[in-house]
Write a structure and sequence with these properties.
The chain is an alpha+beta fold. It is built from 13 helices and 19 strands. Strands 15-12-14-13-17-18-16-19 form an eight-stranded antiparallel β-sheet. A five-stranded antiparallel β-sheet has the order 5-6-10-8-9. Strands 1-2-4-3 form a four-stranded mixed β-sheet. β5 and β6 form a beta hairpin. It comes from Mycolicibacterium aromaticivorans JS19b1 = JCM 16368.
Length: 446
């Protein structure tokens, strides 16, 4: 098990290396960072072999599953890069309502398989995102305001440690490492080969509401949204997106889109859950108003993906905040005034107040989540657009409680993503399980 898998590893300079490197990144903007060797694992033996190789050659290890880290956190100079995208086995126990799935499993693929057997898991909102990176960082998925960030439904993990040991971790086995695996995100210090998941019954109804407003109403809409944040039914995920993609907003004019899913037991309940959204004080000025429509999960995935076109170059940044609308509006106006063309967008999510969470590394969230995504095609526009998310979030940082790791940009803007207490504990657990620093850590931290 000491040697790297035949035909499935590429040293820097080998034929096939560059295409293997580029294929590890979903974003078309592939950073100029070059691992020494890329290992395309298909099973746990490959992972163990790569770790032994790294140890014998004193190399650090980085890992990717779906490659959807906006910053391509796994691309590190000189690393042994473990590409886990082929480790995507899935078994579902419908009676026990559990599943065991490999980190390379796409969240939307898992959601579709569960949907077909009447089950549900809070998978992420986009196609292509794999459960590997998604579950380690928290996991803001369908119905997560009710069932919690998806990492709360990870009941155990199969991992390979820095020493190449294959272990199962859960609340009773290696509890510290299990604690870390739910929130450490791109700083986790073991390789996950499988997640053991708790499943839920498929909600009977997935309802949706959809409004689009002219950009001139930004003050009224965001002030209203902030005011109702504690009152939005937890089954409703109120996402407000500023985008230039709404045709009847006027040529090249941004609009504010409020597209919200709600999972419920009956259509009447779903409609009731949306009532508050129809009470927006400027609802009569909406460009489009659809207070309720049934919508399948597959259609939601298609709709969401229109904001994340696959052939674009991206940067992202974000913040959690409890600030008032009055405090946030100057920064929001700066964002709206400089909003780049579609698919760039500004996301406002009414998330909290949150219930008590499990004891896990994930520990930082606030009432409102703000995120910026810049997306463009021409590499010559890198300078024009790439800093838009970072610079705007940096200018609002005094209003932030911290950031989500989902949309992290830590290499460019170090920020807090767990409580100070949990960061200290993460450092202690890392020192225990990875004393030699075999695994690359976050690209930046406070
Ligand atoms: C288009 C798009 C939509 C998104 N939508 C959502 C969303 O709805 N909700 C949400 O919460 N997030 C969302 N995200 C963020 C996404 O969840 C994170 O970027 C996540 O890390 C992606 O997981 P991945 O496996 O695809 O990425 P990767 O880039 O492969 O992984 C990210 C990091 O996780 C670690 N990692 C990955 N696999 C393993 C493993 N097997 N063992 C140990 N460490 C590992 C590595 O450090 C790696 O650098 C979205 C991202 C994109 C690009």
């Amino acid at each position: 098990m000491g040697s790297l898998p035949e035909g499935r590893h590429f040293f820097h300079g080998d034929d096939g290396y560059e295409s293997a490197r580029q294929a590890t990144v979903w974003n078309q903007r592939v950073p100029d960072r070059y691992p020494d060797v890329i290992v395309q694992a298909v099973d746990t033996d490959d992972v163990v072999a790569a770790l032994r190789y790294a140890k014998a050659n004193n190399k650090q290890v980085s890992i990717k599953s779906g490659g959807h880290s906006w910053a391509a956190s796994h691309l590190r100079d000189g690393a042994v890069l473990l590409d886990m995208s082929r480790v995507d086995q899935t078994s579902i126990d419908t009676d026990a309502m559990t599943a065991v799935a490999g980190p390379g499993k796409g969240g939307s693929a898992l959601a579709a398989e569960l949907d077909a057997v009447g089950l549900f898991f809070p998978a992420g909102h986009c196609k292509g995102v794999c459960i590997g990176g998604y579950l380690l960082q928290g996991g803001y998925g369908w119905n997560s305001r009710v069932v919690g960030p998806a990492c709360e439904s990870v009941v155990g993990l199969d991992v390979v440690t820095a020493d190449g040991d294959t272990i199962y971790i859960d609340a009773d086995h290696h509890p510290d490492l299990y604690w870390a695996a739910r929130g450490a995100g791109p700083g986790f210090f073991a390789v996950v080969t499988a997640f053991h998941l708790k499943l839920y019954p498929k909600p009977a109804v997935l309802g949706s509401s959809f409004y689009a407003y002219p950009i001139e109403l930004a003050d009224e809409i965001f002030t209203w949204a902030r005011g109702i944040s504690a009152d939005v039914d937890r089954r409703v995920e109120l996402q407000i997106v500023a985008t230039r993609s709404v045709p009847n907003a006027g040529i090249d004019r941004p609009a504010i889109v409020m597209a919200s899913p709600a999972f419920a037991d009956t259509e009447a309940e779903a409609k009731k859950a949306f009532t508050l959204l129809d009470q927006c004080p400027v609802v009569d000025k909406a460009l489009i108003a659809v207070p309720y429509a049934p919508m399948a999960l597959a259609d939601w995935y298609t709709a969401v993906m229109s904001n994340y076109l696959e052939d674009h170059r991206y940067t992202a940044d974000n913040m959690w905040t409890n600030a008032s609308a009055a405090e946030l509006m100057p920064g929001i106006h700066r964002i709206l005034d400089t909003l780049p063309p579609h698919p760039a967008h500004f996301l406002w999510l009414n998330w909290g107040p949150s219930p008590q969470r499990q004891d896990m590394a994930y520990s930082l969230e606030s009432e409102i989540y703000l995120a910026l995504y810049a997306g463009w095609m021409d590499p010559q526009d890198d300078e024009k657009y790439s800093d838009w998310p970072r610079s705007n979030m940096a200018s609002m940082a005094s209003l932030a409680t911290g950031i989500q790791l989902a949309d992290e940009n830590l290499g460019r803007r170090p920020a807090k993503f767990v409580t100070d207490e949990n960061m200290a504990r993460l450092d202690r657990v890392r020192a225990q399980y990875d004393p030699d620093g075999r695994f690359h850590s976050w690209m930046g931290r406070l």
